[in-house]
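Shipment paperwork, digital attachment
Item: protein structure file
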Amino acid sequence: MKKFKKEPAEEKEEMNEEISEAQEELAEEKEAPESSSEDEELEKIKAENRQLKEDFLRAYAEAENTKKRCAQEIEKNNKYAISSFAKDLLTVADNLHRAIEAVDNQNSDNCEALRKGVELTENELTKVFNKFGIKKMESLNTVFDPNYHRVIQEVEDPSKPNGTIIAELQTGYMINDRILREAMVVVTKGGK
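Attachment content:
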């Protein structure tokens, strides 16, 4: 059998078709990896963007929290800045109160003028205390609380519940909502 040779034009055409098919396959292969690498790069950028947003929000929240804490500290410092000064003034108030009590025990006309002057001074001091948020604690006939009172003496008294304050030796004071000085008290024991 004889093989027929293809004509050169047919051969050339077949070769061109094969070349174009190969080129198309190569182009598809090139496009697929480029497309996936572009998608991967886009995903990386999106992930980085999300991370940067999260970092920003965390930093912003931390800055806001720090700002609030600083404002609270400033307010607290302003509110209680005079505590040591106020504590020193309490002894003056105690001495004025004792002077009034001592004059009450004397029934003399000379002492009456002194008593009135000391009472006026004590009233003025009380006004200044109120202006700065310093208040007396009322302790008599209340139940002992170690946060507010310091026991100096215990007295047997079965007629009152155990731990009832029956006498106050030194008045307790609060500044705003904080203890400035606890009260020195006498409490009962032996009751219910």
